[in-house]
Amino acid sequence: MYKVLIVDDEIKIREVIREYAEFEGYCVSEANDGMTAVNLCKENDYDIIIMDIMMPKIDGYHAAKEIRKIKEVPIVMLSARGEEYDKLFGFEIGIDDYVVKPFSPKELMARINAILKRNYKKDPDSIMKSFKFKDLEINMSGRCVYVEGAKVDLTPKEYELLFYLVKNKNVALSREKILSEVWGYDFFGFDRTVDTHIKMLRNNLGKYRYIISTIRGIGYKLEA
To answer: For 7-63, how does the pLDDT look when each residue is reduced to its tens digit (9 = 90+)?
Structure first.
């Protein structure tokens, strides 16, 4: 049974999400502010967190940063703010998805289910364990990336994107295909998601940014 933490200062929002999550068979916990969420994560393990941005004490962004220091758990951010800047900032700090209020509970659950399925139901025997290209080393099972021996810190979504590109190296991948496989559903509402994450990933790879090629009119390809 998956354990879900819902963090929102609006009780009605928590109640709606709880109802749908429990219908899916998930075990649900709640917090009404970011500080409580951080403290709960220190004491408990969760499979996914659904968290509002605007909350008392500390906001969702700061709570996500603090949680990332102690746990690597998927985070879906909720917000009434749908500006591109807000979404980009969320992705840069490592959230897995961004849902704008008001939202469809069914769509939210579809996104949650996709993230859980992608993160926890893969067959370990079918996953590539490691990849090496010159001084670039990628440990798939350990989720570690090294450039010239120095560890590179990536967000959870950047890890997934890089691993997907590596597993399909030298194959031209459309943005739609990447969205479907890495995000787990037909993404809509922010059509620059793939481009934004590719840019961040390239920046983190430094001297090896060039191995991710842009295929004009299609998408991207890892060439190594």
So the answer is: 999 999 999 999 999 988 899 999 999 999 999 999 998 999 999 999 988 999 999
- How far, in Å, CA of 49 to CA of 4, rounded? 6
Dist CA 202 CA 71 (whole Å): 25
The number of C-alpha atoms within 13 Å of 25 and in the hemisphere containing its C-beta is 4
The reply to whether omega before 56 is within 30° of 0 (cis) is: no
**In 3-state terms, what secondary structure has residue 46?**
coil
Question: Using alpha carbons only, what angle is made at residue 160 by residues 130 and 20, rounded to the nearest 5 degrees?
Answer: 140
Closest CA to 55 of 35, 41, 75: 35
Q: Show the beta-strand stretches assigned E in the chain.
A: 3-7, 27-31, 48-52, 75-79, 97-100, 130-133, 136-139, 144-147, 150-152, 173-174, 212-215, 219-222
In angstroms and rounded to an integer, the radius of gyration of the C-alpha atoms of the chain is: 18
pTM: 0.61
Strand pairing category for 48-52 and 3-7: parallel
What distance lies between CA 194 and its chain's CA centroid?
12
For residues 149-174, give the mean pLDDT.
89
Contact 142, 154 (CB under 8 A): no
| Residue 73 DSSP class | -
Render the burial of 70-106: b for 16+ CB within 10 Å, e for the rest.
Answer: eeebbbbbbbeeeeeebbbebbeebbbbbbbeebeee
With vertex at residue 178, the alpha carbon angle to CA 174 and CA 180, rounded to the nearest 5 degrees, is: 115
pLDDT of residue 191: 58
